[in-house]
Here is the input.
Amino acid sequence: MRRAIRALVALHLLSAVSAGAAPSPTPQTLLAQMKAWLEPTMASSRQFTMVVRSAPGDAVEWKAAQARGRVDDSNFALTVLLDPPDVRGTALLVQEQKGKPNSEWLFVPSLRRVRQILPVDEFQSFLNTEFTDSDLGFVNLKRQRIALRDVAPVNGRAAYGLEEVPDDQQTFKRIVTWVAKDTQQPLKREYYDVANRLWKVQTFADVATFPNVSVAQRVLIEDMQTGYSSEYRLSALAFVVQVPPELFDWRQLPKAAGHPFWTDSITSKLCGGACPGTPHP
Here is the structure.
């Protein structure tokens, strides 16, 4: 009788512990949550400084702007360099359409032509920086195998480990991402080359939190093999903006840098007083 009672008590405690423990999310769910954190669905405009370093004390700075929005059944991300004059006008447009591969167009002023990037290589370097077209566009939820991995905390924050193995491994063998358990915010990403050696480390910092969205104001990518690095720091950010549809037309990329949207979108004129805020790193 006593053995039966002890067994029932043990079973009850085990059930209570099991019921109280939150199950780990699936890798697919975690990847989707990370994508949602990086790519808020609200139309937005942001301005930032991109810093490219090749050696200590040797840095190149670009002023850039980005617009994100949706037209018909497609999401778009347009990144335009505004300064200095030798790169002004360079523009990358990425289109994401459900069920189809992403489309990309690049305009380089010195060539005076728009080039469609085919086939789309989401890991292609953006202007020889450590950033890729994926970093400035959209996270791919397909064409890869994903799994959960045990990872150590990052700066004291508990995290899930998400390992991505691309189907096309010409650039990266695998990518491991630390995703905060409490917010699904990506904290760090490690990129391994085709020989499975650590190549790049990406970190997300200075998070600004608004009512319905959080944004990393500083993103740094370090090349662990060369010592090079690239980062961007937000200087202005606005949501609930009306992005002119011509900015998402690849045929209009040669005019993108001169569009008045880049000066108007950060003011209340287009936000209508509904912008959640303008963070300044």
The chain has one domain: 24-271. The longest strand covers residues 58-71. The first helix runs from residue 2 to 20. Residues 46 and 155 are 27 Å apart (CA to CA).
